[in-house]
Write a structure and sequence with these properties.
Blueprint: E1 16-18, H1 29-38, E2 46-50, E3 55-60, E4 73-74, E5 79-80, E6 88-92, H2 98-109, E7 113-117, H3 131-148, E8 156-161, H4 163-172, E9 177-185, E10 193-196, H5 204-208, E11 213-214, H6 223-242
Parallel strand pairs: 1-2, 6-7, 6-10, 7-8, 9-10, 9-11
Antiparallel strand pairs: 2-3, 3-4, 3-5
Helix pairs in contact: 2-3, 2-6
Length: about 240
């Protein structure tokens, strides 16, 4: 069943969880523990599940539910939301746990792709040997944020990649990218991706590669604030266009 508006957010449910199969919905061990021990899910309580690819289904907690291998009980058809144009925020690495904050908020905003940039003047640099571990952590953050926000589109998280390589890839794919810059132009519906620079600003060769700039507001934002603002604006413009 395809429906443009029906989303898990419209339901009053105990929880919303990611599953691999909507035909035979089974939660993983971590979510099973959270539902049964933290939320204290009980038999017959409403729950919603999603595959993270635009589809979801209402279910209830089964009886008995003694281990995660027991399937949830569907109470309705699988709902397929209409496909939407993908939006991307590419942000330069920031200090501490701020990348986790950015990924969490961009997921809640409904961004489809999140790209980590390794700009020339980025203060933070990922050790190549630990990049996979960092990405795994960010994917976990996105997963938890999707469930909390009742979303059905799990964003991909990519990188780290240089801004020049990112621009080249977007151009080759026919996507329009813009760099957030104080005093830039308005965000137009045709823009697919927004780049957020590092605390130290863009290097000259990086900035020269940008053919389009856009403004996020009339004040200077911190890098993490700019990334979240860009995500919210991209999602809002897309939603307006689709109405």
């Amino acid at each position: 069943m395809t429906h443009p508006q029906a989303t898990p957010a419209s339901l009053s449910t105990l929880a919303h969880v990611l599953v691999t199969s909507l035909d035979a919905p089974v939660v993983d061990a971590h979510d099973f523990h959270h539902l049964t021990k933290v939320l204290r899910a009980r038999s017959g309580e409403a729950i919603s599940v999603t595959n993270g690819a635009g589809s979801w289904r209402p279910c209830v907690v089964p009886s008995p539910w003694t281990d995660p291998s027991i399937e949830l009980t569907p109470t309705g058809d699988i709902v397929h939301l209409h496909a939407r144009s993908a939006r991307c925020v590419a942000f330069s690495l920031v200090k501490g746990d701020k990348p986790e904050f950015v990924v969490q908020k961009l997921t809640e905003a409904g961004i489809d792709r999140i790209v980590i940039l390794k700009a020339s003047r980025s203060v933070v640099k990922w050790d190549p040997d630990r990049a996979g571990k960092h990405l795994n952590r960010l994917n976990l953050v996105a997963r938890e944020a999707l469930m909390q926000s009742r979303g059905v589109w799990l964003p991909s998280i990519e990188g780290p990649i240089s801004p020049l390589a990112f621009i080249a890839a977007e151009t080759a794919a026919g996507r329009i990218a813009a760099v957030a810059q104080f005093g830039g132009g308005p965000l137009l519906a045709e823009v697919d991706s927004v780049l957020i620079g590092p605390e130290g600003g863009w290097a000259l060769d990086e900035f020269a590669a940008f053919s389009r700039t856009l403004t996020l507001g009339d004040q200077i934002y911190r890098a993490e604030t700019a990334a979240v603002a860009a995500g919210v604006l991209l999602a809002a413009v897309r939603a307006h266009v689709l109405q």
